[in-house]
Amino acid sequence: MQGYSVEKLTLLKAGRSCGLLHRQMTPPRTLPFTPSDQLRGRKLLFVSGKGGVGKTAVSQALALARAREGKRVLWVTFEDPLRPAGELRQVPGPKGLWQLNCDATRAFEEYAALKIGMAPLTRVFLRNKLMQYLAKAAPGIHELVLLGKVWHERLNYDQVIVDMPSTGYGLAMFQSTENFRTLFKGGPLFRDAEQMLRTFSDPAQTGLLIVALPEEMPLQESLELHEFLLALFPENPSGFIVNRLFPRVTGPAEEQASPPDSWPTPHATSVGEYLRKRSILESANLRIWSGAGLEYAALPYVPPAPGQSFDTLVEALSQELSR
Q: What is the DSSP string of 152-200?
């Protein structure tokens, strides 16, 4: 595509022996890799991370790449104020790609209809003031019905790819399933929460993908998110993607000789110095992951181009993921 210089998506295999900033570091080994290859057989894919790391672009690009393979794919966002509540629309492009703007009120109404089975009784149930109050006020029910809608839709598509909320709220959504399984020892809520947990815990059915930027705060927060998800789903460890990675213009020797904490100032006085410092800083930050022994995929920084739109960025990332 014109206006882009998108490098080959790579898997950076980090050395487990990396430690302190001043320690000699072995350069990571570079291998061709795409998350869609790793997660192709899974019906559900949750894309999580700190707000602002590019979860929406990455999740939509993954959905677009899968749809181009001829699959029927649902890309899910949660309560996006820019789109109608509960809207299900076909995304322009491959005919198999759909977007759902999942809404808790609509999801609760659909869940009630599924469980009751008779339209007249469903209407009576939903008009009951106590039920209306519980649907809005019961702790965790909002999150549970949103995830329940996603879980149900996996039956209607080849793959459902979910753009999760930022870390805190995303964790609350997953925790709601465990909470309801603990609180209710019988009935439809207990059975469904238990089945949802089984699905999310099964690596053959569900993929968990964490996105971060090559910056200290998102990388550290991603490790905390990973630990929480691992506690909930111990048999289903997360995958990792670092997004917007600048080209590496420095080598291990220069990074060893000039670590960021030795700089008089982090500011650069020229383009060349900026590129060099950013390369050193990002390599140092990524030792947060390499020190934890993680393998991760890297998506390159895509420089802005005249007239660039979000859809154009998604298209560029999708082409890389399709290779």
A: HHTTTSSEEEEEPPPHHHHHHHHHHHHHHHHH-SSHHHHHHHHHHHHHH
Q: How many CB atoms lie within 10 A of CB 23?
A: 11
Tell me the C-alpha to C-alpha distance, in Å, between residue 110 and each of 8, 115, 123, 308: 43, 9, 11, 38
Band of residue 169 on the pLDDT scale cut at 50, 70, 90: confident
Q: What is the CATH number for 231?
A: 3.40.50.300
In a domain, 3, yes or no: no
pLDDT tens readout for residues 224-265: 999 999 999 999 999 999 999 999 999 999 999 999 999 999
Rounded-to-integer distance, Cα 81 and Cα 240, Å: 28
Nearest to residue 259, comparing CAs of 268, 248, 250? 250
- 133 CB contacts (<8 Å, ≥6 apart)? none
How many structural domains compose the chain?
1
Domain that holds residue 253: 10-322
148 in a structural domain: yes
- Distance (Å, whole) CA 30 – CA 300: 14
**Burial label, 242 (beta-carbon count in 10 A; 0-12, 13-18, 19+):** buried
In a domain, 1, yes or no: no
Q: Which two tokens stand for residue 87?
A: 């809207």
Burial class (CB in 10 A: 0-12, 13-18, 19+), 182: exposed
Quickly count helices (H) and strands (E) in the chain.
13, 10
Report the distance separating Cα 81 and Cα 91, nearest Å: 18
Residue 4 is assigned to a structural domain of this protein: no
- One-letter amino acid of 2: Q
Put simply, whether the predicted model's pTM sits higher than 0.85 gets the answer no
